[in-house]
Amino acid sequence: MLEDKNPQLTPISSLGEFGLIKHLTERFSLNNSSSFLGIGDDAAIIDAATKKVVVTTDVLAEGVHFNLGYVPLKHLGYKAVVTNLSDVAAMNALPTQILVSLAVSNRFPVEALEEIYEGIALACKRYGVDLVGGDTTSSNSGLVMSIMALGLEDEVNLVRRSGAKAGDLLVVTGDLGGAYMGLQILEREHAVFLANPNMQPEMNGYDYILERQLKPEARTDIKPILEALGVRPTAMIDVSDGLASEILHLSDQSGVGFRLYEDKIPIDPLTFATAEEFNLNPVMAALSGGEDYELLMTISAADYEKIKGHLDFTVIGHAVEAEQGNHMVLAGSGELAELTAQGWDAFLKNNRR
């Protein structure tokens, strides 16, 4: 992180709140037709026309959700946007606008915030969303970021968590557990650095899982793929808190149970090997790790042939009647293990991000 001991760095106080906002956002332009009015007035104006507006927000707090000892500020800005766009994608909507609010302590110079906004700008460009507002204030406890994301979609195309029916297939995009194992590498090397600052971090060969943790991507690409295949999910959620937790959310909202097959969970070879290096169960990394930002959905069994063999989708289970509960079918034995929510919860003391 940038240190304010360097006399060349600019204290935030030299700009003031409104000057800081103008400085950080003056390079952002509006590109979506729905962005009727952006930064500069008391509030933004969104022209939704005939579509429904999807709104979501997340708060990221230093020491709870991220550690600036190993998270670059540019990556933090990018990831903060992506985590919100992922929620919009999980509603089968197109993300269109974001608002960014920051609370910062006086140890952060203007240049540090410029790095954060550089990451935000990259995410806006990558996903075609507009920055239309936000706020800044001071903080006595480090850095806190709050992002609000908006999306638009016709009501008929929106997908909720509540539409799964018994017999539906449980499908996930991409692979799981990589972000959690990337976090293990970062925390291990950070601990080594704190013990001996002369030691060089051992990051070679872990590129994929480090990127999954530091620079995840929202699966906004899945919506057009599903449309091209003629598949509409019956329920959907993004995998931010771990596969097990998300399955239980779908179960609760849809009033069904699920059978998850252990040997069907997609795990990248590097994730698998790194988990073994840490003496961890790779399946548990997928079940409880979180921050993969893949999409977990249910689809009608009649749509199976449409996604069969598609590289973006893996069928990992199916929905059952609610009274049958939520279980994982263990590989080899076929025994049932009850699914429990052991993923990320910001209010549990043993959680770290």
In short:
The chain has 353 residues and is α+β, with helices and mostly antiparallel strands. 31% of the residues lie in helices and 23% in strands.
**Which value, in Å, is the CA radius of gyration?**
21 Å
Cα end-to-end separation: 17 Å
**DSSP E strands, number:** 13
- Principal-axis shape equals globular
Coarse structural class:
alpha+beta
Major sheet: order of its strands? 8-10-7-11-9-12-13
List the uncertain runs: none
Please report which band the strand proportion falls in: under 5%, 5-15%, 15-25%, 25-35%, 35-45% or over 45%. Answer: 15-25%
Q: Helical amount among residues, as a percent range? A: 25-40%
Order of helices and strands: HEEEHEHEEEHHHEHEHHEHEEE
Give a description of the structure:
The strands form three sheets. A seven-stranded mixed sheet has the order 8-10-7-11-9-12-13, sandwiched between helices. It has a four-stranded mixed sheet with strand order 3-6-4-5. Strand 12 (326-329) and strand 13 (336-338) form a beta hairpin. The chain contains ten helices and 13 strands. Helix 2 (73-89) runs parallel beside helix 3 (110-127). It is an alpha+beta fold. The mean pLDDT is 92. The two termini are 17 Å apart.
